[in-house]
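Could you join me in thinking about how sequence relates to backbone shape in a protein? Would you write everything just below, so we can both look at the same thing?
***
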Amino acid sequence: MKNRHFLLVIFCLLSIRGPLTSTSAGTGIPPNGLILSTEDYSIFEDSSTPIVPVMKPTNAGTLQRCDYNACREKQTPCEVLSTSLGCLCPGFTLHNQRPEPPSLSSVSWNGSAVVVWWCAPNSYVTSYVVTVEGGEKQTLRANQRRTALSQIDHKAEVCVVAVNDAGDSARSCMEYQPSSNSLLLTVGLIGGTLGLLLLILLAVLLCRRRRQKKEEARHV
């Protein structure tokens, strides 16, 4: 009975060992169709080399807008800020396209001159041209946002145009009405004239007074 069990164990071992030996030796393919690639072991050969993760760019929505105000004077152009700081600019037209018109914000009298303020368009600009209807014309640098005009004593249209190599933009205009300006000018002229007449009158009175004293002195 023991011999039968022993023979049964030997037969089982031989039946198991036989297929494994013949499969691996004859074809070089492991059992159960499992294929092992030698390239997979390269990951474990040098464990001293760290695996560096690849950083993907962050979502564009997390980027901040550039500190650029289209109405601020003498500031760094937005495209320069974007290149150096990686911030976002509003959509700009290219240098080979005519610029969009600037936004004329105010034309007002400040007590000594007519001041014109405007905001830059979202375009490539090389200069600005400010014109007064039937009168003055000024060409200004691209980083300027205001200018002072000479005396405008009549109702006139004031316009600003953006310029680049491709041409001029449409005009951005505002009508200037010198109501308060003319009033101040009229009051100033009247006051100055009255003051001048008063000085002349005082000078005449002093001269007469001196003559009278001289004549009185002669008679005495």
User: Anything to note?
Assistant: The CA atoms of residues 95 and 124 lie 5 Å apart.
